[in-house]
Amino acid sequence: MTSNDIAVSVQNLTKTYGAFAALKGITFDIERGETFALLGPNGAGKSTTIEILEGYRDRSGGEVRVLGVDPQHGGLPWKAKLGIVLQSSGESGNVTVREQLTQFAGMYPNSRDVNEVIAAIGLEEKANTRIKNLSGGQQRRVDVGLGVIGRPELLFLDEPTTGFDPEARRQFWELIRSLKREGTTILLTTHYLDEAAQLSDRAAVVAGGKLVDIGPVGSLGSAEARVPLVRWRESGIVREQRATDPGAVVAGLVARLGEPVELEVVRPSLEDIYLELVTAENAEAEARVAANTTATDGAVIAGTNPAAGASPTTTSFTTTKENERA
Amino acid sequence: MSTATHTSPALSASAAAFGMGRTVRLGLSRIGYETKIYFRQTDTLFFTFLFPVIMLTIFSVAFQGMGNVGANPDGTGGISQAAAYLPGMIAAGILLSGVQNLGVDIAAERSDGTLKRLGGTPLPVLSYFFGKMGQVFATSILQIALLLLVAVVAFGVSLPTDPAKWMTFAWVYLLGIATSAILGIAISRLPRTGKSATAVIIPPVLILQFISGVYLQFSLLPNWLQTVASIFPLKWIAQGMRSVFLPETFASVEPGGSWNLGAVAIALLIWLVAGLVICRVTFRWIRKDS
């Protein structure tokens, strides 16, 4: 692979704010044409990383190349090849969707057709509405439209679908897939793991300023973390068992208990694997060892609160997401 | 086309694509965009655009009963209150359209993410400045036209007919508005948030109007206050405008007994250059690492 095939190269990137180390040495490459997701909890360093790549923040150490250029010295021709969708925008929006897209289109040498972009972000009926009068999700779609109007080689999307309803999210995914088909390199941060799974070729998980895993979304986490889980209720308590041969475990249960109550065979979701990665990063060493032991010897590991109807990890993830939206 | 064949086509293309022509073209396109936004903001429309017109109307009506300014002891001669206030209100309009308008506007744009977004685009900073300056020129010319219209139609003020007066008006206006716009861009750096922008910028602008001969006759202020006001540009813009719109006889009450247009030009040029240097050194799309 030549350096021309690499759109983004990050080596041992560090960022400190006084005594606080926000990034503690992050290394990854993004190939041209690839869609790459940065995952991680709030405060993990996702936005710091993406803003360093966009040229908004200066790094403390390490090497960064974005389309072959050091972002700290990126000039106008470099910026013309980028599309940036920031995490938040609170502009007063006294212009219409069409006026704003037209104004931004003029800044780029090879911009897209304004009407095409309006159609792609699904705002044909709102094209002549002032941006301040749009809903939050519609304003976010304008942000995305402004990010792609310049036909970027590399598109940064920092939590692009926050505030989207499910249908808008699906439309957005279609838009991103069409950009990808055109060869656009995309760097995405998101809290929605299904979004990362839908869109990205590879993902990196950042926690505590460090990169804890990287690879195709389907291969994230340890092999153990992807072992299916058999769950059933026995003597009023919900039991779980990890097993590479869940069929045999279920057969054993049937032989022992007859028809097991509330039987489930669960293949760990991306969320489960992700949570294991980020909590492992923060957990104490003993806890990590203990978790590994129980995961590998396949013993019954936990009795969970039957009333919750979900594993404690899933519950805590939902809570986290709600906090972030607030 | 054929003359350029010996240079690298890719190189010359990219140089042309991001050269001064593009900066000017984008700047022109932003003037229209910025001016459109200006007239859509009802608060700026009132506090910046219409404010001098409203003040001229209030003062002219309120003090009408006091008779003419500079009248003879028998009540004849002199000029109407409206005519006396007109040059000060034009000067105030120039200050509001530049310093107050851009100071508040750009501070808000820095705070709400507009500048951050623009900083991520290939828009040259200079094009952004052109857009703001052009907006200030366009809106302040309309504002002065409206002031003159109200003065003539509502209060019967007679405007100067001597072309030399209008030449003076032209250069005082151009120098004044350019200085005011540049200082507006420079001062926009001071407010920490968009919400505090009006609280930080409007009070000093208002105080300047009181001590620079806009609302109060400059010659009636104590000497020390005149000296303080002379540090700032508004006093000089107002003095230049008085030389255009007031009769020659009024020059005798000015400090030094004359309009002193040379000092007007020098004071405004110093502020213009200082403002340009401040903008060049301090303007950033965002506060990095904040």
From TrEMBL, chain A:
Tell me where on the tree of life, at the top rank, the source sits: Bacteria
Quote the InterPro entries the UniProt record gives.
AAA+_ATPase, ABC_transporter-like_ATP-bd, ABC_transporter-like_CS, ABC_transporter_ATP-binding, P-loop_NTPase
Q: Name one Pfam family in it.
A: ABC_tran
GO terms of molecular function: ATP binding; ATP hydrolysis activity
Example of a GO biological process term:
response to antibiotic
Specify where it is mainly localized.
Answer: membrane
Cellular component GO terms, alphabetically?
plasma membrane
Which subcellular locations apply to this protein? Cell membrane
User: Keywords on this record?
Assistant: Antibiotic resistance, ATP-binding, Nucleotide-binding, Transport
Stated membrane topology is: Peripheral membrane protein
Q: Which Gene3D superfamilies match?
A: P-loop containing nucleotide triphosphate hydrolases (3.40.50.300)
Query: Residues annotated as region Disordered?
Result: 303-326
Zinc found in the keyword field? no
Compositional bias per record (Low complexity), positions renumbered to this chain:
303-320
Q: Where is the ABC transporter domain?
A: 8-233
This protein is called: ABC transporter
Q: Which organism is this protein's natural source?
A: Subtercola lobariae
From TrEMBL, chain B:
Organism of provenance: Subtercola lobariae
- TM ranges: 45-63, 83-108, 136-157, 169-187, 199-218, 261-283
Q: Does the keyword Secreted apply?
A: no
Coarsely, its chief localization is membrane
Is Transmembrane helix among this UniProt entry's keywords?
Answer: yes
Q: Which InterPro entries match?
A: ABC-2_transporter, ABC2_TM, ABC2_TM_bact-type, ABC_2_transport
Domain named ABC transmembrane type-2 is located at: 43-289
What is the phylogenetic placement of the source species in the record? Answer: Bacteria, Bacillati, Actinomycetota, Actinomycetes, Micrococcales
What is a biological process (GO) this protein takes part in? response to antibiotic
One GO MF term attached to the UniProt entry: ABC-type transporter activity
* Location in the cell: Membrane
Which UniProt keywords are present, listed alphabetically?
Antibiotic resistance, Membrane, Transmembrane, Transmembrane helix
| This protein's GO CC annotations | ATP-binding cassette (ABC) transporter complex
Question: What membrane topology is annotated for this entry?
Answer: Multi-pass membrane protein
* Name of the protein in its database record: Transport permease protein
